[in-house]
Structures are given as structure tokens and as C-alpha cells.
Amino acid sequence: MNRKQSYDDVVAFHGHECPGAAFGVRVAEVALARLGASADGLVAVAENDTCALDAIQVLTDCTFGKRTLIHQDNGRNVYTFWDRTAGKGVRIRAKADSVVYRSEEIWELAEKVEDGSATQAEQERFAVLQAERVGKLLELPEEDFLSVDEIEAEVPATKRVARVDLCVECGEPTSVETLHEHRGRMLCPACHLDAHGGTLPANHGDHGHHPHSHAHQHHKH
């Protein structure tokens, strides 16, 4: 993998240069090198929704559309890749206190840039610091900022295309895998949340599933 070309390809897709895109290039690079799998055999689990995900989609061909990229919103820079053919996986995470994470100065500048209060000098300083991070992420040895572990566990199943049925509240066609039974009525996730006043109770359990859902069929056995 030509790292510079890979980064350029990711930036073209992502829309701008940033440390997250550079970090994603290195994550994808490690995953492909360790697993040695063809793109069609990979499944990725990402525990965040950062810029790095675009790099993973471009370089590993694991995508949301093909249901081979699974999002788990844990807020962590952790990515697990599986070779479905070989039944093996690799867990890649960013090391604490590494260049992957913003310094306090960068955080302060970023907040000013984002709320529009940054001076011209502060905007330029922010751009310089971010560019420096990009350069380091593309050049440093992986062990300086990545922790990589081989794992053995059940490979995540690829999510299947599901039937749809109408939510009885809003009338929108909704996947039967996400419809919730609430007091005898099948509701989409948004209407289900509204039915609870916008916040699910702390002890909220699993509702009954739609008769055509995979979970319903599983519980029958």
C-alpha cells in the first residue's frame, strides 16, 4: 500500500485533510497487513463515528452500504477487523497520550475556530498544529500510537436486508428488525422514544419483536 497515495484517495473522498483521515489510513494499513485478507472477506467494527471511518471505507472496502462496517457508539478509537474466511480478527486501538489525541492547546483553538471567535493568528496556529499531526500520523512507526492485538472469537454476522412494515404511529415503512412493540403497538425507534417522553427508563427491557424479525424467529427456538 502506497501510504501517500492512500491518504490522497481518502482526502478526495472525505473532502479535506485532517488527522482523523491520516489515522484511519494507518488503521486500515495495519488491518490489511495483519489479516492478509481480500477486501471482500473483511468485516469491521468501529467504536466511534470519526473521520477515520471514511479511510476505512475507502481502503478496506468495508462500508455501511454493504453492511460490512458495523458502528458501535462507544466513543473509543478502537477498530476490530475480521477475516470471515479465516475466522480470525485483529483489534486496533489508539494509545493514550499519543498524537492521535488533541493537545490542550489544540482543543482550545478548535473550540474557538468552531464557534467563530478565533483570530486570524489562532486559525493559522490551529492549521499548523493539525498539519503537524497529519505528518506525524503518516510517518511515525505504528507502535508509537497504535496497540494491535490478534483475537479469536465469533466473527460478527453480516446484517441482513430485512422486510419493512408500517409504524402504527407515524405510518413510515420501517425495518421489522427495529420496530418495537409498545403496549401492543409496533413503533419505529423515533416514535418509541417519543412514547417514553424522549428518554427511555433506566430499567427499560427488550420489547416484543415483529413476527418477521430475526430476533423473533430466534426466540421461538
What structural class is derived from the secondary structure elements?
alpha+beta
User: Order of SSEs, N→C?
Assistant: HHEHEEEHHEEEEEHH
Radius of gyration: 21 Å
List low-confidence stretches: none
User: What is the β-strand count?
Assistant: 9
Report strand %: 15-25%
User: Strands of the biggest beta sheet: in what spatial order?
Assistant: 2-1-3-4-5
Q: Provide the residue-averaged pLDDT.
A: 89
* Helical content class: 25-40%
Overall description:
By secondary structure, the protein is an alpha+beta fold. Helix content is 38%, strand content 18%. Helix 1 packs across helix 3 (52-60) and helix 2 packs parallel to helix 3. The longest helix has 20 residues, at 120-139. The mean pLDDT is 89.
List the helices and strands and how they pair.
Blueprint: H1 3-14, H2 19-35, E1 42-46, H3 52-60, E2 69-71, E3 78-83, E4 88-94, H4 104-115, H5 120-139, E5 146-151, E6 164-166, E7 173-175, E8 180-182, E9 185-187, H6 189-195, H7 214-220
Parallel strand pairs: 1-2
Antiparallel strand pairs: 1-3, 3-4, 4-5, 6-7, 8-9
Helix pairs in contact: 1-2, 1-3, 2-3, 2-5, 4-5
The gist of it:
This protein has helices spanning 3-14, 19-35, 52-60, 104-115, 120-139, 189-195, 214-220; strands at residues 42-46, 69-71, 78-83, 88-94, 146-151, 164-166, 173-175, 180-182, 185-187. With 221 residues, it is an alpha+beta fold.
